[in-house]
Amino acid sequence: MAKKIFNLLYKIIIFLSGILFLFFAVLSFWETQTGYVYGKAPDDIIPLYKIHDNPLWHILAVTSVFLFFLMSDRIHRRKTVLKFSKYHFVFPLAMALIAGLAAFAVVYGGVRHPYGDQAQLYGAAMYFNEGNYIQLSPGGYLDLYPHQLGYVLYLQTLFRFTGSTSYYLVQIINCFFIAGILWRVYTLAKCITEKVAPWIAAVLFAALTLSLPLYASFIYGDIPSIFFSLGFIRRIMQIVRSFHASPTQEKGRTLPYVLAFADITLAILFKKNAEILLIAAVLTLLFLLVYARITGRSKSSLHMVIFLFFLCVTPVLAPRLVHAHYSHLSGYSVSGGLPSVSWVAMGTIEDGSPGWFNNYPVPVYYSVGFDREQTAERAIEKLKSQFSYFTSHPVYALSFYKRKIATQWNDPLFNAQINYNVEENAYSPARLFQDHIYQMSSVLSVVQNMVYFGVLLYSLSIGKDILKYTKKASYELPSTAFIALFFEFFVLGQFFFSIIWEANSRFTILCYLFMIPMSATGYSETFSKWISSMVSIAENRKI
C-alpha cells in the first residue's frame, strides 16, 4: 500500500512539472515579456513591454543544439580525440573566467554610486560600523525589511576587514561570484550525467545568460545567494547519490552534509527566497528515506536524520540570530518586518505591471503607527477585495495572472536592465546593452526558449523512465529519479511562490540556472535515445 501511494505521489509531481515545462516552452516560443524596461531617457521606465519573436529563430536554435550533439557524438567516436577528454574542464574554466571579466568590464566602465534599496543597505553597513543604528528604528528601512540584515552583516564585516567603505570593492567581489556561478553550473551538469557533451552545452547556455555580468554592479544579496544556492544543490545531489547507493553505510559521508548545511545557511542569510530551495531539498530527502524504508533497503540513517533536523532548524534560525545580534547592539527590537500577507496583497495589485512592487505595504504600515497586526489586518481586507474583484471579472483575473507569470518566467533579462548602475556617459558593455536592449532581448529570448524546450525534453525522458520502472512488480528507482524530484520540487515551489508573492523576474534566475544542466541533459538523452532507435531499426532491416 505504501509503495502504491509513493508511486502515485511521484507520478503526480512529474505530471505537474511536465505541464509547467510545456507551458514555459510554448510561452517563450511566441513572445518575450518583462516587467520593466528603460525608455529613451535613463529615468524613463516603461512598466511593461512585449516582443513578438520570430518562431523560425527558435526552431533554428533548437535544431542547432541537436546538430551540436550530433557533432559531439561523431567526435567522441574518434579514438584520436578521446585522449583529450580528461582536459574537458579547460573550456568551462575559460568560460567562467570570461564571465568574470565581462562582469568586471561592466563594473569598470563608469558605474555610479548605489541608489534606492542598494544605497540603503550600503549606507546601513557604514552607519552600523560607526555605531549608528537609526535604520532599525520604527519605520526605518531595516525595520521594514529585516530580512536584508544578513547582507548588511556581510557588507559591514567586509568593510571592517578592508578598512574601506568603497562600493566598488563589493562589485568586484560580485565578479568573482559570477565566475563561480558559471563554474558551479558546470559542476551540476557533472553530477547529473557522465557524458561530456551536456557539460559543454550547459556551460554555453550559462555563458549566454548575459544578465549575470550585468548584476555585478548590483549591491544586493542576489548574486552571493545564487552562488551558495548552486553549491547546496550540488551537495544535495551528492548526498542523494551516496545514500541511494548505500543507505546503511554512513562512514566517510560527513563532509557533503556539512558543506550543504553551510551553503544553504549562507544562501538564506543573503536572500530569504532560498528557503524555497531548502524546502525542496527536505521534501526530496524525506521521499528518499521513505523509499528506502518501503523497499526494505534501510530502516534508518543517523546521518540523514541528523542532517534533516539541522536543515529544518538552523538555517531558518540563522536569520533570527542575526536579528538578535543587531537588537542587542542597537537597543531596537528587530522583528519580522512587514507582514507576509501584505506582500501577498501587493502581488494582487496592478500598478503599471501585474503584481510587481508598488510600495503598497509601506504607507499602510506608517498609517497605523508601525503596528504589524493592524497592517496584516488591512492587507487581509485588501486581499479579500482583490479576490472579490477577480471573481467578478474572471477574464481580467486570467489576463492578470497570465501576465504576472509571463513577466517573471519569460523575461530573459531577469530584470537586470534596471538593477545595474551605469552613468549616462559611460563606455561600458552595460551601456551598450542598455542602448540596444530590444535587440538583445530578442536574442536572449531564443536562448531562453532553447533552455525551456530542453527542460521539457528532460521531463519527458525522466517521466518515461519512471513509468517504465514503476510498471515492474519489483523495481529499484535510480538515483537520477530523486535528483529529478529535487529539481521538480524546487521549480514547482518557485512557480507557486511567484504567483502569490510580489512579482519580480530576478527571483526566478536561480531556478533558470538550475534548469540549464537539466536542459542540456534533456537534449543529450533525447538525442541518444533517437540514435539508439535508429540503429535498432537499421539492424532489424538487415535481419
Describe the structure.
This protein has about 550 residues and is mostly helical. Helices cover about 70% and strands about 5% of the residues. The chain contains 22 helices and six strands. It has helices spanning about 1-30, 55-75, 80, 90-110, 115-130, 140-145, 150-160, 165-190, 195-205, 210-215, 220-245, 255-270, 275-295, 300-330, 340-345, 360-365, 370-390, 395-410, 430-435, 435-470, 480-500, 510-540; strands spanning about 30-35, 35-40, 45, 50, 350, 355. The chain has a two-stranded antiparallel ribbon with strand order 1-4. A two-stranded antiparallel sheet has the order 2-3. The protein is globular and about 70 Å long. The model is unreliable at about 35-45 (pLDDT under 50).
